[in-house]
Amino acid sequence: MMRSLFSGVSGLQNHQTRMDVVGNNISNVNTTGFKKNRVNFQDMIYQQLSGAAKPTDDLGGVNPKEVGLGMSIASIDTIHTQGSLQTTGVGTDLAIQGNGFFVLKQGEKSYFTRAGAFSLDSEGLMVNPANGMRVQGWMARTMGGEQVLDVSRDTEDLVIPVGGKDAARATTQVNFACNLDKRTPTIPNFDPTPGDIARGTWGTEMEIFDSFGIEHILRVEFTRNWGTNADGQPALELNNRWTATVTVDPENEAPTNTEVGMAGGAPPAGGNIFTVIFNNNGTLQAVEDLNGALSNGEGSVIMNVAFDVQSAAPQEGGIPVRQQFTLNLGTVNGLVNSITQYAEQSSTKAIIQDGYTMGYLDNFKIDNSGVITGVYSNGTTRTLGQVALASFSNQGGLEKGGDNIFVRSNNSGYANVGPSGIAGKGKIIAGTLEMSNVDLSEQFVDMIVTQRGFQANSRTIQTADQLLQEILSLKR
Questions:
Q1: Cα–Cα–Cα angle for 82, 119, 388, nearest 5°?
Q2: For residues 127 and 242, which has the higher predicted lDDT (pLDDT)?
Q3: Are 125 and 195 in a shared domain?
């Protein structure tokens, strides 16, 4: 009789625990990144009234007689299914689509979370604003003049220096991709005499920068050459040649002494003129400097340009500071990003230079790999860092620590920290938050089932009590 009482008690206690879990799930239905829990029951130890007997020659086998002593909780599992994604438009709100956790640190202790409602603090650190824990990742480092991410290093705090400066950069290369019209006419009313050369000109200008970020005007004028020989016959060898004149700041009162020479390491010298030679199919063939030296006839066609930087303090002896950059005219026989000579209007639709003024960090964005890219007021972009993700061999073994965080346990395994999209980690979506994976309809059904289980166990205790009362009333 007493067994049924204690079985009922165990049922009441454990259904109450299940109700506690259901209530916690429902209360966190709108908690960012929350993962619901599930209670699994199991039966308890059994009292054996008689054991089993094997068959004999005269009798068959007998099964054991056992009476159960109630039930217990087998496990309370954390269900790590994907929650729905909600767009917020906030650049520091991050969600993970797939497996993985964001890594947070407080001192030297690491925590893990799916809730990516992050922000920046007064020092530019990316943190969880609810508790101040710092988001972990890798900051970019400058190597060879380029920003490089080394994800093999230990993670560190992510710092986004909004308002930080991006130093000015002097122009080191200028790329041309224009067309020079083969139909360019002679100078109006010009009647060449034997030995004269008629010219038609096309010019272009663009801004370049020195090391201070001061703008300079680069002017390149292309003049088509053709004419007659001394005997009065057409000078056919001039048909595909254009003379290029390069000038920096042509309107300045003080000349900048622009010089152009063949690429090869030596400083440019000998004037600011060179000749561009085209093939009969309209593509670039070679360039020729004032000394008659030709480019190698294959690969990239590059000239070196140098000019005086008048805003810089002169060197010892009053020698002006010279700035050099390369003038990339394209590739031999190239059509894309190369100078050409076709019977189409002359154009300069693609000219690129790599210099810029000093700028301030205005904004930043985070891509699907978690790479943080800074956008500066001077139009440049810089890789600032990358958000790290952690994965576990048994994520169900993580312990919940409150504040939407998880803590590693003995059964979760160690954190495998790396960039998103690698080793089973999901991708990061910026401007989005992952919502709770609690399904209210499912929880209400669980609540009904739990309530009925609790009621049934209370009836077991009530009925056992009535039986005991009947026994006590046998002797009156």
A1: 55
A2: 127
A3: no
Mean pLDDT score of the chain, rounded to an integer?
Answer: 88
The fraction of the chain above a pLDDT of 70, given in percent, is 92
**pLDDT score at 188:** 45
Confidence of residue 117 (pLDDT cuts 50, 70, 90): very high
Residues 326, 262: Cα–Cα separation, whole Å: 10
Q: For residue 186, what pLDDT band results from cuts at 50, 70 and 90?
A: low
Same domain, 139 and 10: no
Give me the domain span that covers residue 427.
Answer: 91-165+367-391+400-434
196/193 Cα distance (integer angstroms): 6
Residue 191 has pLDDT above 70, yes or no: no
Backbone angles phi, psi at 200, to 5 degrees: -125, 135
Give the per-residue SS3 of the chain.
Answer: CHHHHHHHHHHHHHHHHHHHHHHHHHHCCCCCCCCCEEEEEEECCEEEEECCECCCCCCCCECCEEEECCEEEEEEEECCCCCCEEECCCCCEEEEECCCEEEEEECCEEEEECCCECEECCCCEEECCCCCCEEEEEECEEECCEEECCCCCCCEECECCCCCEECCECCCEEECCCECCCCCCCCCCCCCCCCCEEEEEEEEEEEEECCCCCEEEEEEEEEEEEEECCCCCECHHHCCEEEEEEEECCCCCCCCCCEEEECCCCCCCCCCEEEEEECCCCCEEEEECCCCCECCCCCEEEEEEEEECCCCCCCCCCCCCEEEEEEEEEECCCCCCCCECCCCCCECCCCEECCECCEEEEEEEECCCCEEEEEECCCCEEEEEEECEEECCCHHHCEEEECCEEECCCCCCCCEEECCCCCCCCEEEECEEECCCCCHHHHHHHHHHHHHHHHHHHHHHHHHHHHHHHHHCCCC
Residues 308 and 282 placed together within one structural domain of the fold: yes
| pLDDT per residue as tens digits for the range 257-277 | 998 888 765 555 568 888 888
Mean pLDDT, rounded, for 173-191: 74
Domain co-membership, 303 together with 154: no
Is residue 476 scored above 70 in pLDDT? no
What is the rounded CA–CA span in Å between residue 423 and residue 417?
9
- Does this model's pTM top 0.85? no
Residues 238 and 129 in one domain: no
With a CB cutoff of 8 Å and minimum separation 6, the contacts of 108 are: none
